[in-house]
Each structure stands twice: as structure tokens, then as C-alpha cells.
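Hey team,

Filing this mostly as a record. A colleague (T.K.) asked me to run one chain through the structure pipeline before their review meeting, and I want the input and output archived in the tracker in case anyone asks later how it was produced. No errors, nothing strange. Just documentation.

Input sequence:
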Amino acid sequence: MVILEVKDLWVKYKKEEKYTLKNINIKIKKGECIVILGVNGAGKSTLLYTIMGAKSYEKGEIKINGSMSGYIENITFIPELTGEENIKYIAKIYGKKVKKEEVEKELKNVGLYKKRKTKVYKYSTGMKKRLAFAMNILLDAEIMILDEPLENLDPAERIKLIKKIKNLNKSEKTIIVTTHVLSEAEKLAGKIIILHNGEIISNTEIKGDKKYIFKYKINEETYSKEINEKEIVKEIQNIEEKNGEIIKIVKITNDIENLFFKVIKEF
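Output structure:
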């Protein structure tokens, strides 16, 4: 079952500027863990803002077939409320009733139980990340969106959070994670989407058939397309029939580091 679909999405950060996201197409099935990988400024957070309805788009369509929660970039809590109070307040906004025991359990799970009565303005960035993760667990949405969840965490915190995300995915939660750190992507992903200069240049499972990325030009317009090995000959014929020109063909490897650097270098 497809739980989230993005079709032909075009987004401008500001009306007068060029497109920040161009021709984005994504299908995510229920229970998948997707990692959106890209350098800083690739458009990862903008994509999540748009999916969550916090950013408008010029063209395209977004279909969501389930409940959704998440956090993006700079996490905004009410600084004068405690960690515990922030969770209860946000849960109320979402129309979710959470019991005191449930809140305490999740705060223990992220190592914030002893700080639950501390006002959030005293929290470090890493503590706010962990608080946001606990909040999303309690909201119990079918789709969980996590923007750079491991950033600003120490190594021990990072290992624990990776384990928690993987356990959530095993329980059929659909998880979308952004990161610019290759080692994090490798530990989390079932599928990798590489975003570069506002375009998806690779969308591939970590394991599976050999795939290639075609970069080609038709009528002075440049396109990128991912295809399976068995479709290569047919794709070349299609491009030639349209009087197109093949610019590059890049083989996709299932090793994330090699895949990422090879694709970014070529495109």
C-alpha cells in the first residue's frame, strides 16, 4: 500500500526566485524507512516542509494516506515550559491524549526523565532533538518525519536513537529521515533518495537489481532518469527516436558511500 506519494512537485522558496525543488516524484509504501540524502542546501528540509503542509508549492500533487507527525530543522518548543509540559501541550494540539506514565516512559527511553521538569530554554540542541523524538513516539502517527535526527547528538546518543528508529520501522511505522551523513544513512535506510540541487538524481533500494542513471538532453532540456539494467537498450532507443542526446550513464552501486559520491560527482 502506498502511504505517501509526491507527483511532479515544483517548489519555489520565494515567488521571484528559481525553483528550489524540481519535478520531485516519490512513492513510499507503508512500513518503509526512507533516507533522503544530500549535501547542505540540496532541498531536503524544503521537501519535508512541503510534504507536511508548512510550505506551499507551485505545481504537482501530494497524496497522504495516513496520519503524520514529525520535526523539521530548528525545533520550536515553548521555552518557558518544561520538557514534560511541551509534550503534553503539543499532543493536545494534535488531539492526542497522553497519560503521565506514557510521557515519563518515553522520556526515560530518550534519557530525559531527570530533566522532565527543566524548562526547555535550558536544553541543549541534542536534548531538544531527543525531546522531539519522544514527542513523535507519543503522537503515534503512521508516518514519522525526522529531519537530521542524529545531528548534535554525542556518539552514545546517536547509537541509541538509530536503534530506536530501526525498532519503530520493524513495527510497521513509515519513517522518512533526512541526513547529510553517509554513515547514518547506511545504518537506517531501506531505500535511499539522493537529492541534489533540488532534483532527485537517485531513488534506489539498498539491495536489489542493478540500476543506472541516464542523463540526457532533448530539445535543449536536460533530464535525469533511473532505470533497471534490462531497460537500457529500450531507453537508448526512446531517446534516439526523440532526437535526443545521451550525456552520461552512471551505474548505481548498493554501497551508499560509493553511490553518493559517484552520483554527486557525475551530476
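Quick notes for T.K.: Residues 155-170 form the longest helix (16 residues). Residues 1-66+175-205 form a domain with the Rossmann fold fold (CATH 3.40.50.300).
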